[in-house]
Amino acid sequence: MKKLLILIAIIALGIGGYFYKDQIKDYVGNISDKSGEKTNKELILREFPTKEVEVFELGEDVVTLNFSKSGTSSSESSVYVTPEVAGRISDIKVSIGDDVEKGDTLLVLGDSLSTDIADLQLNTAQNTLNLAVYSQDLTEVAGNQAYYSAQIGVDSAKKAYTSAVQTKNDTIDLFEIQIESAEIGIDSVEEAYEDAEEMLEDAEDALEDLEDELDDLEDTLDPGSPEIIALEKAIEQAENIVEQAESVEESTENALEQAELSIDQVEATYYSQINQLNTAIKQSYNQYLLALNQAESAKTGAELQNAGVSTQVVQANSGKESAELNVSGQKVKAPISGKIAQIQAEEGNMTAPGQVLLKIESTGDLTIKTSVNTSEAELINLEDKVKITANNKDYEGEIVSISPTPNEVTKKIDIEIEVDDSEGLSAGSFVKVHFVSTPTNQIYIPLNSILISDGKKLAKTVLDNNTILCKPIETGQIIGDYIEVLSGLDGDEQIISSITSFLEDGEKVAPVK
User: Fold this and answer.
1) 473 three-state secondary structure
2) What's the confidence (pLDDT) of residue 30?
3) What is the pLDDT of residue 38?
4) Which of 195, 200, 291, 506 has its Cα between 20 and 30 A from that of 236?
5) 108-134 burial string, b = 16+ CB within 10 Å, else e?
6) pLDDT score for 47
C-alpha cells in the first residue's frame, strides 16, 4: 500500500510539472532577476519528450466493417408430383425421406388400356417415321442424280462454247499468217515488176540510141558498109531484148494481179468463216445458258421435293415424339432434386393427370433470408460475398436480392442470399450471416477515437505541423469497432485513434502508424 501511494505521488508530481512547466519557468526567471546574482551555475529546465500518438489516416487507411445478422434458411422450392398420363400405378420406387435426383423415376404406370394404347401409338409412329426417312433418302438420291445429269450437260455445253471461241481465235491467227505471207509475196512480185519495167525502159532507151546512131551513119556511109551492117545487127538484138523485157513485164504484172486476187480470196474466205464461227459461238453460248437453266431447275426441283419429304419426316418425328411423351409419361420422374416429403399413391390404384402423387422438398441450393437497417443496406451490394454460420459450420453465400424499400412490418431491408454449397444445411435452420464492407462514400473512424466533452463529440486531428486540433463532429451509426461521421471532417485528416484526456489543442505530438 505504501509503495502504491508513493507511485501515485510521483505520477501526480510529473503531471503537475508538465501542466505548470511554463509557470515554473517564469517563476525561476523572476527569482534570478530579483537576486541579481550571476553565478557560473545555470538553471536547466527539463523539457518533457513529445508524446507519440497512434493516428488513423482518412482516405488511406482501409476501413473494414463487420456486422452480423440472424437469418433463416429456406428451400429453393418444393413441388407436388403429378402424372402426365392416365394409368394404373404398378410400381412405387421411393419411400418418404428418400433423397432423389432430378430425373429419377419415382413410380411406374402400366397394366391398363391407356398405357397399351400409348405403346401401340408409339410403335405406329416409329414405323411412319422410318417410312418417311426412307422416302426422303430416295427423293434425295433422285434429285441429286437429276442435278448431276444437268450439270454434265452444263459442262458439255461450256466445253462446246469454249471450243467454238477457240476455233474462231485459231482461224483469226491462221488468217493473219496467210495475209502476212501473201503480202510478203506481193512485195516480191511488185519488186520483180518494178525491175522488169526498169529493164524494159533500159532496153527501149538502148534501141532508141542505136536507131538514132543508124540514122546518123546512113547520112554519111553507104548502106552496105560494115558499120551500118553491124549497127543493124545490134538494133535487131536490142529489139529482141525489148520484146523479152516486155514479156517479163507482162508476166510480172500478171503475177501481181494474181497475188492481189489471192489476198481478196483469202479475205473473202476469212470473213465467211468468221461469220460461220460467230453463229456457232452464239448457238453454243445459248446452249450453255439453256444447260445452266436446266441445272438450276433440276436443283430447285430437287430442293422442293426434299422440302416436301422433309416436312413429312418432321411431321412423322413430331408424331413419334408425342407418342414417346405418352409412353415416357408412364414413368413419373422427379422434376427437382430433393427429399421425398409425402407419398399419396398406392400400387394398383388408377391415377390421372393432375392427381397429386408425391411431394418433394428441394435440398439443393438454399436461400438465406435476413434483414438489415436502412443505413446498413447502403454498405452492401448485389453479388457481394457473405459468410454464413450454422451448426458450427461456415458456408459461403452471395447476395442475390436487396429489397428497394423497407419491410412494412419490420421497417428493415429484406435481404436474400444464395448458398453455393449447402450440403449439411437443411431448410428452416437458423443461421448467422456475417457481412463485410469497405465503405467508399461514407467516413468511418475508429470508435475509440471519439471524445465527448461538454456534451459535444470531438475528433482530435493532427495538423501538418504535428499539433492537435479538436474538431466537433456529428456521428451516425456504429458498426463493429467503427463509427460513422456525418459532418465535421473533410476526409483527409489524421485522427488520433486512441484518445487521452491529457492532449489539448495546439499541443505538439509525434504521430505513429
Assistant:
1) coil
2) 44
3) 42
4) 195
5) bbbebebbeebeebbeebeebbeebee
6) 52
Distance CA 489, CA 121 (A): 81
CATH of domain 65-76+364-437: 2.40.30.170
> Measured between alpha carbons, how far is residue 323 from residues 90, 126, 195, 239, 452 in Å?
20, 9, 108, 124, 81
Check whether domain 49-64+439-513 has CATH 3.40.50.800, yes or no? no
Encode pLDDT of 227-241 as tens digits: 888 888 888 888 888
Q: Which CATH architecture does the domain made up of 79-104+334-359 adopt?
A: Beta Barrel (2.40)
**Cell triple for 333:** 420422374
What are the DSSP calls for 368-418, one per residue?
Answer: EEEEE-HHHHTT--TT-EEEEEETTEEEEEEEEEE-SS--TTT-SEEEEEE
- pLDDT at site 321: 76
| Residue for grid cell 429419377 | 104
Alpha carbon separation from 169 to 44, 155, 174, 276, 324 (Å, rounded): 126, 21, 9, 13, 69
Question: What mean pLDDT do residues 123-145 have?
Answer: 86
Cell for 324? 414417346
Domain 116-328: assigned CATH number: 1.20.1270
| CB half-sphere exposure, 152, CA atoms < 13 A | 5
pLDDT tens digits, one per residue of 284-320: 999 999 988 988 888 888 888 888 888 888 888 888 7
- Signed CA dihedral, 158, 159, 162, 163: sign only: negative
Cell of 396: 459461403
Per DSSP, the three-state class of 341 is: strand
SS3 (DSSP) at 93: coil
Nearby residues of 384 by Cβ (< 8 Å), 6 or more positions away: 398, 399, 435, 437
Please give the Cα distance from 272 to 456 (Å, whole number): 121
Amino acid letter at 127? Answer: N
Residue spans per domain, the chain: 1-48, 49-64+439-513, 65-76+364-437, 79-104+334-359, 116-328
Would you call 496 exposed, middle or buried from its count of C-beta atoms within 10 A (0-12, 13-18, 19+)?
A: buried
pLDDT of res. 371: 94
- Lowest mean pLDDT across 96-110, 205-219, 338-352: 205-219
Distance of CA 294 to the CA centre of its chain: 42
Q: Quick one: pLDDT at residue 448? A: 84
Residue located via cell numbers 513485164: 249
Do the first three CATH levels of 49-64+439-513 and 65-76+364-437 match, i.e. the same topology?
A: no
Q: Edge-to-edge strands of the sheet including 482-487?
A: 443-446, 482-487, 474-479
